[in-house]
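Put briefly, the fold is written as integer tokens. One such record reads:
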Amino acid sequence: MPLTPPPHGSVRSSDELNERIRGLWLRAGGRLSAEQRREYEQLVTEWAAAVRAEIVRAA
């Protein structure tokens, strides 16, 4: 499933992004193509931002 950015102004949760990352690895069978690698990198970057935002909200 290609990476679809969230609608402008909305943010996906770290849990949702984690599930997308896990699903990507499962579909890829543990070996990512170049396109899947780009998607993975985007998802991980978005996941890290979501984790930071969740920590800030909790503080």
Q: What stands out?
A: The mean pLDDT is 87. The two ends are 34 Å apart (CA to CA). The first helix runs from residue 14 to 28. The chain has one domain: 12-56.
